[in-house]
Amino acid sequence: MDEYKQVIAVRTDIRMGKGKLAVQVAHAAVSAAFKAYNSRRWRRWFDLWWETGQKKIVVKGGSEKDLLDLAYRAEKLDLPVSIVRDAGRTQLEPGTLTAIGIGPAPSEVIDKVTGGLKLL
What is the pLDDT of residue 1? Predict the structure, then answer.
């Protein structure tokens, strides 16, 4: 049986408090999951991921450029991707890219994009 997961990559070159970081990860996870849920091509992945415990991995993504590169590579593999930009109401400037969510999708496909990244 295939394993399904979601990976959230976060910026490590900007300072965010723990609460802010947690919220940005949540935004990325929920947004990417809804994208998959509402898509004909990704709905089966969502359903299998949901039924098997909604595995999520959070990794260090690097800079804004690094995150955009990861998102581009994931989209080239036809994976659901969400890009999170902060509203700028608290710690960050409006529009600051903070995190991306990839998946839910088969683990072996996501690993082609994020397999070399370190856990947060």
Answer: 56
State the DSSP code for 119: B
Q: What CATH number is given to the structural domain containing 75?
A: 3.40.1490.10
Dihedral sign, CA of 27, 72, 76, 3? negative
- Residue 66 identity (one-letter amino acid): D
- Who's near 80: CB < 8 A, 6+ residues apart? 32, 35, 36, 39, 42, 45, 101, 102, 103, 104, 105
Q: Is the pTM of this model over 0.85?
A: yes
> Does residue 64 carry a pLDDT above 70?
yes
How many domains does the chain contain in total? 1
Two tokens at 8? 């959230």
Residue 24 is part of which domain span?
A: 4-114
User: 28-62 in b/e burial notation, b at 16+ Cβ within 10 A?
Assistant: bbebbbebbbeeeebeebbebbeeeeeebbbbebb
Residues forming a β-bridge with 84: 99
